[in-house]
Design brief:
The chain has four domains: 123 residues, TerB-like (Orthogonal Bundle), CATH 1.10.3680; 94 residues, predicted glycosyltransferase like domains (Thrombin, subunit H), CATH 2.40.10; 128 residues, no CATH class; 104 residues, no CATH class. With 512 residues, the protein is an alpha+beta fold. Helix 2 runs antiparallel to helix 3. 42% of the residues lie in helices and 15% in strands. It starts with a helix and ends in a 17-residue tail after the last helix. The longest helix has 24 residues. The chain binds zinc ion. Zinc ion binds next to loops.
């Protein structure tokens, strides 16, 4: 046992502690395997062989040691009480005699009775806190029992009926845990008895450990025993400040964080004017819609692990049944954890904007940065096609940052981002296939013309112009539409390259 406080104890205190352990073990009148195991762990600090022998002898002889008051410092007293409390429940039960023993020990250690009560409350809480009335069917017999200590796949049952190990059990939890009023049952839980032990308790004669084959479901009472909010209490949607938006609550697939707001643009509510790189600038509202700059908060961010995306499917919608994730959550999670400090630094101390529908330009830029980190990592998980999908998303987040900054007069920053995008595309281009290659060549040409970096433009223009000779492209397909757009726009830009260059443009929009 490693416990620095215990290590520091005087020999006299250690001896007192060892005797207290024996007393605790005997408090419920029997010795349990788990208790002996715990005792051996505690004895390992008693380097004194004589004392160890005497303690083990006491256990063998059923001797209850006499505890006398001892004067020690508070920290040591509390450390001893913590150990005794853990020991009191290793047999999964807290008998009245054990409670009495804990109280006596606390008083002998010079602690207040109020503190002793706290330790007892802690022990009770660890035992599972609430007890849930249920009807237990074993063979032909149905008995009223109470259950506690629920984990996903197991629970303890207080019962007056002896249950054989391996017996098949059917357990039905009462929907109303207060037994004063019967309101019905949840669906039956099928389980198997692992062991049945006699207990000295006012509640029942035996404790049975029931093991279930699969996790307990909400139809079987999971929400009740794990004190989860009822289905109806789960927040599903909210009303955003602007009526052009829909508000959904989502949960994070990576860390499980709940109630993350997600804003979705209503169809036909805002007019979008695309810039030369295909990024929308929202410039006016249709009909009775309120106007807002949707680019500011289209990325939703998990405030806990800072997972970020503008696509609701990468989260779990709380208004929908739990669905299959678009990505391998466990591989994502293990890698995502490592960058958390960096991401937290990016967000800074004030993270309240993550929850609010109002964002400054700077905050929105950060949200896109988090989305780039998220989708770059998602791209590492799957095949080439997944990689291309996420790469495309990351590029479009960077382009949106640039568009927003440019419109707010932050031209230098916006152009810096565009140059980085170009570099990223050029590096990735040799490994890009089909649609990804078309998109990349398209953007590289436009960015090069914008910056008047014309040396390599020919290479990418040729790639686009000769594309259909190298790859058969099905007429009317998505690939064919992408290609036609890319060829048309790059040809136009090349032909009037002076007008598409930075020194003739006030924004990334041609009409300005
Ligand atoms: Zn999260």
């Amino acid at each position: 046992m490693e416990d620095p406080i215990v290590e520091m104890m005087s020999d006299k205190t250690k001896e007192w502690f060892a005797y207290a352990v024996v007393g605790m073990i005997w408090a419920d009148g029997r010795v349990d395997q788990a208790e002996i195991k715990y005792l051996k762990g505690i004895l390992s600090f008693l380097k004194d062989k004589r004392l160890i022998t005497s303690v083990l002898e006491m256990i063998k002889q059923n001797t209850m040691p006499d505890l006398t008051p001892i004067k020690i410092d508070n920290d040591q007293a509390i450390a001893i009480m913590k150990h005794l409390t853990s020991l009191s429940i290793v047999d999964e039960e807290l008998a009245t005699s054990e409670e009495v023993f804990l109280k006596d020990a606390a008083v002998h250690l010079g602690l207040s009775t109020a503190l002793a009560d706290k330790f007892i409350a802690l022990a009770r809480k660890r035992l599972g806190g609430n007890r849930f009335p249920a009807s237990l069917l074993v063979g032909e017999d149905s008995v009223e029992v109470s259950c506690f200590g629920f984990t996903e796949n197991a629970c303890m049952i207080f019962t007056d009926r002896l249950v054989n190990p391996l017996a098949r059990l059917t357990l039905k939890l009462h929907t109303n845990p207060r037994a004063d009023r019967e309101t019905g049952f949840y669906n039956p839980i099928v389980a198997e008895a692992q062991w049945c032990r006699e207990v000295k308790s006012n509640v029942a004669k035996y404790v049975v450990k029931a093991a279930m084959k699969r996790p307990i479901s909400s139809e079987e009472g999971a929400r009740l025993v794990f004190s989860l909010p009822e289905e109806s209490a789960i927040k599903k949607t909210f009303e955003p400040d602007f009526n052009c938006l829909l508000g959904f609550f989502v949960s994070c697939r990576s860390c499980g964080e709940k109630d993350i707001p997600f804003w979705q643009l209503r169809t036909r509510s805002l007019h979008a004017n695309n810039n030369i790189f295909g990024i929308p600038l929202y410039d006016k509202a249709f009909g009775n819609s309120d106007f807002c700059d949707y680019n500011l908060f289209q990325v939703s961010v998990c405030p806990n692990c800072l997972f970020a995306s503008n696509q609701i499917d990468y989260f779990q919608r709380q208004d929908k049944a739990v669905g299959v994730s678009l990505f391998d959550v466990s591989s994502f999670k293990s890698r995502w954890q490592s960058g958390l400090t960096k991401r937290k630094k990016l967000v800074g101390k004030n993270d309240s904007w993550l929850f609010s529908g109002e964002r400054t330009l700077n905050q929105a830029v950060i949200s896109y940065e988090l989305a780039v980190l998220t989708h770059d990592q998602l791209g590492q998980l799957g095949d080439d096609e997944d990689f291309a999908t996420h790469q495309r998303k990351s590029i479009s987040f960077k382009l949106t940052q640039a568009e927003m900054l440019m419109n707010k007069g932050e031209r230098a920053m916006a152009e810096q981002i565009m140059l980085k995008v170009k570099k990223r595309l050029e590096n990735a281009f040799p490994n890009m296939a089909r649609e990804a290659g078309i998109r990349a060549a398209h953007l590289i040409v436009l960015i090069s013309i914008y910056f008047k970096n014309l040396e390599n433009v020919g290479e990418y223009l040729n790639y686009l112009n000769n594309y259909s000779r190298r790859h058969p492209v099905k007429a009317g397909s998505k690939e064919s539409k992408l290609l036609n757009l890319a060829v048309r726009q790059t040809t136009e830009a090349w032909q009037s390259k002076d007008q598409w260059a930075y020194d003739s443009m006030h924004s990334f929009h041609l009409d300005n």
